[in-house]
Amino acid sequence: MENEPKYIIFTDLDGTLLDSENYSAAAASKALDFIRQNNIPLIFVTSKTAMEICRIRAKLKNVHPFVCENGGGIYIPKGYFEGNPADDEFEIIGLGVEYSILKRELKEASNKLKIELQGMSQLSDREIIKLTGIKEEDVPHARQRGFDEPFVIKSTDPNGDAERLIEYFNHRGLNVVRGNRFYHLTGGCDKGMAIQVLLGRFEEALGGGWKSVGFGDSPNDIPLFEAVEIPIAVKKPPKPGHFDFDIRDVQGLNFADGIGPAGWNKAALELLQKNKLPV
Ligand SMILES: [Mg+2]
After folding, report:
1. Mean pLDDT for back-to-back runs of 10 residues, the chain (279 residues)
2. Residues 87, 195 share a domain
């Protein structure tokens, strides 16, 4: 119909569309089916790497562009806007600061501020598995990074030290954001900037009038929330679920009634089928 909203959905993965423990999107399958049947663009915007996202896209039969490493890279399937996307060929737009620089900056900060921390590149495979719960065969994909270094703070005052790091890096033009399991060091990019670039591409190729929706669960999703027209937060475990304290003040944020993919499913179906926002 002419005047039905033309939705485009941007979503975080970990803890949002995917269950934070088993990485399953099963609880959102009804909404995902509806979205696929109605050809609504569903864009993954995550701290994961391109290789990790490609596996999830294949599993969820997603053919849309995606944003990796907290906004560091935008991947658009070749031919996507002409209606015949290629499976594994992408136009890549890099927005972030190069990985080797981020690794060096992190080491320097640790020495200068005397904060004990470890970047993902310094962690053993075993430690990565323990921290993330990903499978052994997925570790090499998690290590293929271009624009974002996840790290853990190992000191006795991780919150205080995170504050010091944020200030230090802000002076250096870099960003620290907190995700589900790691802090992330990035530069010159965030999820929101990547969304704006992608929305521009959609408008250029397919015309304007998009109603943008964004799902997230953590502080690294705040730029995502701020970049869309309809931001929706999902709850975090354990049951009955709670909203991350640090995202509650985002202006205009809507709160889905459910943890991760269950909340996602409910809010997406209400919105797409009935034009209703969670109350
Ligand atoms: Mg998340």
Report:
1. 81 96 96 97 96 95 95 96 86 93 96 96 95 92 94 93 96 91 91 96 95 96 97 96 95 97 98 88
2. yes
Asked if residue 61 and residue 196 are part of one domain, the reply reads: yes
Tell me the CA–centroid distance for residue 91 and ligand 1, in Å.
Answer: 25
Q: Helix 29-37 vs helix 260-274: angle between axes, to the nearest 10 degrees?
A: 40
- Lookup: tokens for 53: 């996202």
Q: Which of 12, 19, 148, 190 is catalytic?
A: 12
For residue 28, the enclosing domain spans 6-95+190-274
Distance 23 CA to ligand 1 centre (A): 11
- Do 233 and 259 contact (CB within 8 A), yes or no? no
249 flagged as catalytic: no
113 CA distance to ligand 1 centroid (A)?
Answer: 28
Q: 3-state DSSP call for residue 201?
A: helix
CA distance linking residue 220 with residue 226, whole number of Å: 11
Question: What is the number of other CB atoms lying within 10 angstroms of the CB of residue 249?
Answer: 8
Q: Per the confidence metrics, is the pTM higher than 0.70?
A: yes
pLDDT of residue 84: 86
Number of separate helices (H) and strands (E) present in the chain: 9, 12
- Give the distance (Å) from ligand 1 centre to CA of residue 4: 30
Q: ω before 85 within 30° of 0 (cis)? A: no
C-alpha 96 – ligand 1 centre gap (Å): 19
The token pair that represents 103 in the structure block: 């690794």
CATH number for position 124: 3.30.980.20
Count other C-beta atoms under 10 Å from residue 239's C-beta: 7
| Residue 1 confidence (pLDDT) | 46
